[in-house]
Amino acid sequence: MRSSSLAHSISIANLPEDLVRRLKARAARHGRSLEGEILAVLEEALCEEALPLDVREVARRVSAPGLRTPAEAAAWVRRSRDG
User: Fold this and answer.
1) In angstroms, how far is the first alpha carbon of the chain from the final one?
2) CA 17 to chain centre
3) Which of 6, 13, 25, 49 is most buried, with most CB under 10 Å away?
4) CA quadruple 27, 30, 33, 35: dihedral positive or negative?
């Protein structure tokens, strides 16, 4: 998915131990190195960002705390849709 032949490195300090443990477990489940898993997570997150919301995602977000009435949910959908 990378479009550039130039590689870049990022160093992240102060990662919580629990986060590193979960990333390592996820990497093992997917048969990847820790670095490979982190790259996959970043690519997935950024690809999803560009996609329009699907019905399941809208339902998940609408049921999130803070949206107590249909009017609040409708306002949230409008803000999400219209930017």
Assistant:
1) 27
2) 20
3) 25
4) negative
How far, CA to CA in Å, does 64 sit from each of 24, 50, 61, 72?
A: 29, 21, 5, 11
CA neighbours closer than 13 Å in the CB half-sphere of residue 10:
6
Q: Where does residue 61 rank: exposed (0-12), middle (13-18), buried (19+ CB within 10 A)?
A: middle
Q: Count CA within 13 A, CB hemisphere, residue 56.
A: 0
List per-residue pLDDT tens for the chain, 83 residues long: 555 677 889 999 999 999 999 999 999 999 999 999 999 999 888 876 666 777 777 777 777 667 778 888 788 788 888 87
Asked if residue 53 lies in contact with residue 80, where contact means CB atoms within 8 angstroms, the answer is yes
In 1-83, alpha helices (H): 17-30, 34-50, 55-62, 70-82
